[in-house]
Amino acid sequence: MINLLLNILSVGAIISGILVITSKNPVISVLFLISVFLHTCGYLVLLGVGFIGISYLIVYVGAIAILFLFVVIMLNLQLQELSIVGKEYTQNLPLSLILGSVFLYEFTEILPFSFKDQSSFNITIIKEIIINFSLGVFNFINTKIISVIDFITKFTNKDYNNQNFITSQETINFNYINNNNTIYVAFNNMQVDENLENFIEIQSIAQIIYTNGIVWLILCSIILLLAIIAPITLTLNKQNKLYY
Question: 22-27 long-range contacts, Cβ below 8 Å, gap at least 24?
Fold first, then answer.
């Protein structure tokens, strides 16, 4: 029963997403956009990710989609204007299909592998190269940190707790890392899921965000700050300033 509901919600979200970009009336497009968010929210709730699903409902439907709907209603677009735009859109449709077909053909020709035979493009080799390079950089930084700590302890005669660092004799063996392991698993003996299995959903999300993902959280906050400052700067009327 749950699988049937998941399939219905996923198909409904896909159909609503298609109707968002094909509807001529912008008000109807925004309503279908709200439908996409509602289907996505129900899908996530049935998967057991209730907090993120409710967040989708509150943030997107409760704020962004309603704001879009309010702006579209304030524009007061006439039906005649929408029909003219629709006719112009259908006139350019054959040209867009031709250009899209040419783009897909060129895209498939320049790919280094074929979709039918992927033997020439081995993804596991690239994964091993990336993992080995990342671990090599980590070992280099680790040895430098240990050398600095040893240099400090010689002059201060204080005992520092070095248990958070890997000693130079404990450098990571590259052959130990297989394709199924990640860099986090290589550096930690305990899996992430084992650490978070006793937490509720909100606690597990907070544990990940405020420990391993703190740098990305700060980066996202800076991006949001720039998104607030940029429109204010662009809409600032500099001609009405008074110069004394």
Answer: 24/82, 24/83, 24/85, 24/86, 25/79, 25/82, 26/72, 26/75, 26/77, 26/82, 27/69, 27/72, 27/73
